[in-house]
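Form 7-S
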Amino acid sequence: MKVDKLQKETKELQEQLGAAKDEVETWKKDGVLKEVLEAKEREVEALRREMEEGKRQASGLRSGRSRRRARLRLMWRWEAANEEHGPQEQGGEAAAAGARAEGAAGGLGKAGAGGEGVVLAVGAGRRKGEGR
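Output:
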């Protein structure tokens, strides 16, 4: 899976980071030019950042964050369509885009592929705390 691949890459990056640190320490003892030392330290920093990014991606996959963000993007798209056309004027194009996004987001209730269910589920016009 993708998480396993990212974990393997993270382990490889950690090994490279350790080797680069050892090389820098050796060069400090040998008194090598300052520019070469700084270049190696930048390389170590870049490897560390890459390793952190890999960890962030792996945790995002495990937490389901991407599904939540896709659902939010769907909601934002509907809100933008409502502001632009009004809730009654959402045509087939917006419904089709919503149905596609709804499928990618993992569902928002009983929304059907025809798009009408999406309009009912998302465009109900009621927000949290507004009552019925």
